[in-house]
Design brief:
The protein is of the alpha/beta class and 323 residues long. 30% of the residues lie in helices and 22% in strands.
Length: 323
């Protein structure tokens, strides 16, 4: 296990009229095997990006641990945050805002290695090599500024910059969602090629369930700050266990006229994260909700490597549909 999240928790306190505490991430635990791609999906506000920022140390954890290569990150006697960030990098959704408009492409990519002690000449050489690897000819693009590039080209620069510190893990937070479909396909194939070349491990966050299926080995489904379901990609898409996951998959667009979506798979909006319901957080929208769902759901195993937070999947829960 190259990366583990252990009971991560993050809450944001609000002030003013909307005073309260947002339960952004609540006791989230999972692991990532070396060389795999873990896809993370869920509605906006479910905690995907907050989880990614907790892993990177961009947000302070309220509770829980991040374990990288068997060492606790930013903990007494563990791995310093600076070292962890050299092993784990992140690519963000907004390709333009992620780059310094005053730095050339080459300088942006070389900046990280220089900060971590790589000689300037070597850092520049590494930057030019990475530009070549992401499909941007250094002679044409090294001296350009972000505003002179297209969205797809800027995201390629961001990918190169993430690889400049030679990380083992790359977190991709909606990294292709702002791109045209044709460009998106090119970048996705580039990511797969780079993964093979450098032996990378990916955490791939996306709203696009088709893209997640194409990229991922395992999929983690989040809902309102908690994990609803986690398992191999084939199990999640073919043997779905959680009602929320089924609702997500039924909302996927299809070209088959015999499988048209005629009714919305879910009714209503997610509960307010300032005051989430006790027990299963999906129960206020779940067609199978019963009184037992007011208790916190167990982490029930479905099959090897496939787990779900639903009382229906726990034969001892007392739910009438439990199996």
């Amino acid at each position: 296990m190259i990366l583990e999240a252990r009971e991560l928790r993050k809450r944001f306190k609000l002030k003013g009229r909307a005073a309260g505490t947002v339960h952004a991430v609540d006791d989230v635990s999972f692991g990532v095997e070396e060389g795999e791609t873990l896809g993370i999906v869920g509605e906006s506000g479910c905690g995907k990006s907050t989880t990614a920022r907790l892993l990177m140390g961009l947000l302070d954890r309220d509770a829980g641990d991040v374990v990288l290569e068997g060492r606790r990150v930013d903990a007494p006697g563990g791995m310093p945050l600076r070292e962890a960030r050299s092993k784990m990098q992140m690519v963000f959704q907004d390709s333009f805002a992620s780059l310094n408009p005053r730095l050339t492409v080459q300088d942006s990519i070389a900046f990280g290695p220089k900060v971590h002690g790589v000689p300037a000449k070597d850092a520049v050489g590494r930057a030019r090599d990475l530009l070549e690897r992401v499909g941007l000819e250094p002679g044409r693009f090294a001296g350009r500024y972000p505003h002179e590039l297209s969205g797809g080209q800027r995201q390629r620069v961001n990918i190169a910059r993430a690889l400049a510190l030679q990380p083992r893990i790359v977190i991709l937070d909606e990294a292709v969602s702002a791109l045209d479909k044709s460009v998106e396909a090119q970048v996705l194939n580039l990511l797969l090629d780079l993964k093979a070349q450098f032996g990378l491990t990916y955490l791939f966050i996306s709203h696009d369930l088709n893209v997640v299926r194409y990229m991922s080995d395992r999929v983690m489904v989040m809902y309102l700050g908690r994990i609803a379901e986690l398992g191999p990609v084939d199990a999640i898409y073919a043997r779905t266990a959680h009602p929320y996951t089924r609702a997500l998959l039924s909302a996927m667009p299809t070209m088959d006229p015999t499988h048209r979506t005629e009714r919305p798979p879910l009714a209503g909006d997610p509960p307010n994260p300032i005051d989430p319901p006790p027990g299963c957080r999906f129960r206020t929208r779940c067609p199978y909700a019963e009184a037992v769902c007011e208790r916190d759901p167990v982490d029930a195993p479905v099959e090897s490597g496939h787990r779900v937070a639903c009382h229906i999947m726990d034969k001892n829960s007392g739910h009438t549909l439990a199996r």
